[in-house]
Amino acid sequence: MATAAIPVPEGTIIVGKPKWRPLEGEGNLAMLLLLPTVALLMMFIAYPFVRGILLAVTNSKVGQMGEFVGFENFARLLKDPIFHAVVYNTFLYTFVTTIFKLILGLWLALLLNRDFKFKAFTRAFILLPFIVPTVLACFAWKWMFDPTFSVLNWMLFKLGIVAAGAGVNWLGDGDMAMLSIMIVNIWRGVPFFAISLMAGLQTISPDLGEAAAIDGAKPWQRFWYITWPLLMPVTMVVMLFSVIQTFSDFQIVYVMTGGGPANATHLFATYAYQLGVGTGLLSQGAAVSLAMFPLLFGIVIFQLMYIRRVETR
Amino acid sequence: MSSVTIRHVHKRYEDFHAVKGVSLEIKDKEFVVLVGPSGCGKTTTLRMVAGLETISEGDIMIGNKIVNQLPPMDRDIAMVFQNYALYPHMTVYDNMAFGLKMRKFDKAEIAKRVNNAADILDIKDHLGRKPRMLSGGQRQRVALGRAIVRNPQVFLFDEPLSNLDAKLRVQMRVEIKKLHQRLATTSIYVTHDQVEAMTLGDRVVVMKDGLIQQVGEPLELYNRPANKYVAGFIGSPAMNFADTMIEEAGGAVYATNPTMKIRVPEQIAARMGPHKGKPATLGIRPEDLRMANGTDPEDLSFEAVVEVAEQLGSEIILDLKAGGSAMVASVEPTVRVKPQQKIRLAINPAGLRFFDATTEAAI
Asked: Contact A93/A181 with Cβ under 8 angstroms?
């Protein structure tokens, strides 16, 4: 388009003069506004991440800068039987707890989505395990799982399921310890599932259920053909968050078992901490936590692709 | 196809008595419209027929069966919702087929019925699409399709046109009328729009505060409203009301107030006996008013001041002030008046209605 000068009619007065206003340009302003976010991300995400990678390829220990050793730390991990157990434990822990959290959370969400007395109160109450500081809750659980003073064993004894003094060794046995921390993780995670899924349920118009009821669908058919598919996008997002959280879980294991007995309950995070901080082998700890990255990355990519597919359906 | 009988039905919520004893006989193949303002109990009544609300008291019969305890799926009804209630994750075809699938029809029969319904409703080209890709009018057609494929005994419509724009609403109204003429299925239709009620219903039920005000054919409601509420609700623009005193003078009965002295027509005057000397509400529809010429008798006309004149082409709607009360008149499009102009309006005596000032019942 030609920008021919438009003739200014005789007698028109031009007021004001162009000023230098650098922030009027969209690009400059955008840069300026982005700056704080970028700075924070660099400081708290990018720097630790890069530092972690740099640590993992040295033989650094506490008090010793270390030298570049390439992939030696990772090669060592591949031969480390504890690391093998850690990988197995983490996948098992994540898989089992997520399944149970989903089932129980969905069940609770469906119940909470009904109309009943004290609805608001109950909904708030359900969130308790999620609100209580995890470490405190874990100490309480540890007490409940205590070999001698276990309230759980006391109940089992009173119910006549176990003999006196022959209670379940909740945290002392490898498999039982794994089961115990899974129970605590599920207990803590169910409220998040329940509340999020309930929020999802509330976005589904009740008319759809009524229309389906008139269409002849029985309650379980209404759930299976209407509610479940419509809830899927929310379910997938909740699962995504939960898997990330659970895969990198630290607090529960650290407080309850410390990874024991005999490394039976170590997960990536706890093993990385034990190697890096506990033992002082910073580079090996970094290698363990870095090993989590590609695995988690793969899971997340898969889930994100699935969410996108569900949402564009 | 089937009749529907509603007998002394009540609906009580914890703190609200929504339906207070509604009785209604709907004949086979009849199209009945429940109309009234929001909160009048019309939708609750419909939902009780559908089985989506429990019945606090009374009986609902479909055909010769009392269905109070039957779940919606066993009542052999279909319902069209205000917001369409289409399953968003299913195609148009699957939306329409869902009810048949749930009832275990075989695939060929389902395809036949869905295609047939799609033909009738002119949505054949959209069968593979999702509801969100359709316009409002198309969605409502799909909702209608979902209702007709099952060939139910009764259709229930819950304000199906309220979410459409004005033009589409008129168009879909005609479609629904055509559909009923073609299928002749017993229908109950809920709306707050009196125009929809008048144009669609074989009979119209006017409801207010959980009670039926009047049941009748559209013209019956228009010509012989049972009370002031029905008179004001049916017709657009609404009937004008003026507070008057009923007085007898020189052998004739008059309704008077400071700005008008209107002679009550003979046949109504005959019923005025007990009302003489008492207040009554005079009602006159805008279309029964016209500009007075010199020959109109004093006692069938009154003076008013023009506030606004709305030219609609086919008529002019005059907003007037007659004494203390606001009036609306529908006059010839050729009339020329200015705001604040004083005019004289003549009354068509056949259009005069009177209502008891306290009970509001028609006299």
From this structure: yes
Cβ separation of B85 and A226 shorter than 8 Å?
no
Distance from CA of residue A168 to its chain's centroid?
Answer: 30
Is A309 at the interface with chain B, CB within 8 A?
no
Among candidates B83, B87, B103 on the partner chain, residue whose Cβ is nearest the Cβ of A216: B103
Contact B71 A215 (CB under 8 A): no
Other residues' Cβ atoms within 10 Å of the Cβ of residue B328: 19
DSSP state of B234: S
B244-to-B256, B290, B298, B302 alpha-carbon distances in Å: 5, 21, 16, 13
**A287 closest CA partner among A67, A90, A58, A85:** A58
Residue contact B73–A229, C-beta within 8 A: no
Question: Do A207 and B81 lie within an 8 Å CB cutoff?
Answer: yes
Q: Which of A81, A85, A74 is nearest to A283 (CA)?
A: A74
CA distance A87 to A81: 10
User: By the 8 A CB rule, do B22 and B28 touch?
Assistant: no
CA dihedral A276, A281, A284, A289 (to 10 degrees): 10
CA A223, A227, A233, A237 dihedral sign is negative
DSSP string spanning B4-41? EEEEEEEEEETTEEEEEEEEEEE-TT-EEEEE-STTSS
Q: Identify all chain B residues contacting A313, using CB atoms and an 8 Å cutoff.
A: 89, 130
C-alpha closest to that of B319 among B304, B334, B333, B332: B304
pLDDT by residue for chain B (363 residues), tens only, comes to 689 999 999 999 888 898 898 899 999 999 999 999 888 889 999 999 999 999 999 999 998 889 999 999 999 999 999 889 999 999 999 999 999 999 999 999 999 999 999 988 888 899 999 999 998 889 999 999 999 998 899 999 999 898 888 888 898 899 899 989 988 999 999 999 989 999 999 999 999 999 999 999 999 999 999 999 999 999 888 999 998 988 888 778 888 888 888 888 888 888 887 888 888 999 999 999 989 887 888 888 888 999 999 999 899 999 999 877 889 999 998 888 888 899 999 999 888 999 988 888 888
Q: How many CB pairs under 8 A join A and B?
A: 59
Q: In what order do the strands lie in the sheet with B211-216?
A: B77-80, B154-158, B186-191, B31-35, B203-208, B211-216
- Spell out which residues of chain B touch residue A205, defining contact as CB-CB under 8 Å: 83, 85
Structure tokens at A77: 């991990």
Distances (CA, A) of A31 to A21, A41, B36: 15, 15, 59
Instruction: Write down the pTM of the prediction.
Output: 0.79
Q: Which of B44, B87, B140, B151 to mutate to test the interface with A (most CBs of A within 10 A)?
A: B87
The residue in chain B having the minimum alpha-carbon distance to the alpha carbon of residue A217 is B102
Q: Is A217 on the interface with B (CB under 8 A)?
A: yes
Structure tokens at B149: 């494929």
Q: Which of residues 260-279 of B touch A (CB under 8 A)?
A: none
